[in-house]
Recover the amino acids of this structure.
């Protein structure tokens, strides 16, 4: 039987990492008590250390810095398309006047 993948909220992950950090017990033992795989807890801690408040943005959501990059790339693509249209229009009109 295939086990359904469990999803954890941002708050759950933050609390689990806090419990592991404050506990004097090994992280693997804390993870077992919470019913999660120890690798999850290690990964969550690593993400929190690396990303701080932007850790665990949620399914389908981007960190603020990644979202800004995404928007800038979209805007750049639009500007490139507009530039290409203007180039084609310039070529078209300069050929007509010759």
């Amino acid at each position: 039987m295939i086990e359904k993948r469990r999803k954890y909220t941002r708050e759950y992950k933050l609390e689990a990492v806090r419990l592991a950090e404050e506990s004097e017990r090994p992280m693997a033992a804390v993870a077992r008590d919470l019913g999660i795989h120890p690798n999850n807890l290690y990964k969550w801690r690593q993400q929190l250390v690396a990303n701080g408040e932007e850790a665990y943005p949620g399914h389908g959501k981007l960190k603020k810095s990644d979202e800004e990059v995404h928007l800038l790339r979209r805007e750049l693509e639009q500007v490139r398309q507009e530039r290409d249209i203007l180039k084609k229009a310039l070529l078209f009109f300069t050929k007509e006047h010759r």
User: Anything to note?
Assistant: The mean pLDDT is 85. Residues 1-58 form a domain with the Arc Repressor Mutant, subunit A fold (CATH 1.10.10). DSSP finds four helices and no strands in the chain. Helices lie at 10-22, 27-34, 38-51, 64-96.
